[in-house]
Design brief:
This protein is about 90% helix and about 0% strand. The protein has a domain of about 130 residues: Methane Monooxygenase Hydroxylase, Chain G, domain 1. The chain is built from four helices and no strands. Helix 1 runs antiparallel to helix 2, helix 1 packs parallel to helix 3 and helix 2 packs antiparallel against helix 3. By secondary structure, it is mainly α. GO terms for molecular function: SNAP receptor activity. One of its GO terms (cellular component) is SNARE complex. Keywords: Coiled coil, Endoplasmic reticulum, ER-Golgi transport, Membrane, Transmembrane, Transmembrane helix, Transport. It comes from Carlito syrichta (Philippine tarsier). InterPro entries: Sec20 (IPR005606), Sec20_C (IPR056173).
Length: about 230
């Protein structure tokens, strides 16, 4: 059975892919939009909602990565998080370009309507107001996109700092492991030397004991059997 943490990571990845596709579809709708302004505003509202949901899921995945016990799994998930953030930045850039494309399309449509004639003064006034609203709305959208991109860049920098810190921790652990390996090798040599000395001491004791017993037997023999 998969661990709850693994299930959560898998769900986050699925949701991120889903929201990414939905954002791309909405951006394409903005490219194809030729007005009116209310339609563009509605599409941009939907895009903002999807970006918020996407950012929330990426943050959840990043938090899950930081909670991983194994360093290798942690680094792998953090790399996935970084890729998702880069993809979101790319989508935000495409969103801004799509808004510009839509503005041009709306401007061209309004110019074409002006050329059709009839009630020129009223149409000119309406066009100016519409252009002013469109410019204001697009300017606001572009400012919002810029703020979002700035936040993503800051989050990417924080993620990179986390990766650098983790790499430094791994290097320090490797150095400690090398130091421990040297200590273990030295201990093995000392134990081997101690075992050899112990064997020599046993041999000397055995020889001394044999000499002692031979001496005792000799003395006993001389006392009990002096004629031998």
């Amino acid at each position: 059975m998969a661990a709850p943490q693994d299930v959560h990571v898998r769900i986050c990845n699925q949701e991120i892919v889903k929201f990414d596709l939905e954002v791309k579809a909405l951006i394409q709708d903005i490219r194809d939009c030729s007005g009116p302004l209310s339609a563009l505003t509605e599409l941009n509202t939907k895009v903002k909602e999807k970006f918020q949901q996407l950012r929330h899921r990426i943050q959840e995945l990043e938090q899950s990565a930081k909670e991983q016990d194994k360093e290798s799994e942690k680094q792998l998930l953090l790399q996935e998080v970084e890729n998702h953030k880069k993809q979101m930045l790319s989508n935000q850039t495409s969103w801004r370009k799509a808004n510009l494309t839509c503005k041009i399309a709306i401007d061209n449509l309004e110019k074409a309507e002006l050329l059709q004639g009839g009630e020129h003064l009223r149409q000119r006034k309406t066009t100016k107001e519409s252009l002013a609203q469109t410019s204001s709305a697009i300017t606001e959208n572009l400012m919002g996109i810029s703020r979002m991109m700035s936040q993503q860049v800051q989050q990417s920098e924080e993620a990179m700092q986390t990766l650098v810190t983790s790499s430094r921790t791994i290097l320090d652990a490797n150095e400690e492991f090398k130091s421990m390996s040297g200590t273990i090798t030295l201990g093995r040599k000392l134990i081997t030397k101690y075992n050899r000395r112990e064997l020599t001491d046993k041999l000397l004791i055995f020889l001394a004991l044999a000499l002692f017993l031979a001496t005792v037997l000799y003395i006993v023999k001389k006392r009990l059997f002096p004629f031998l």
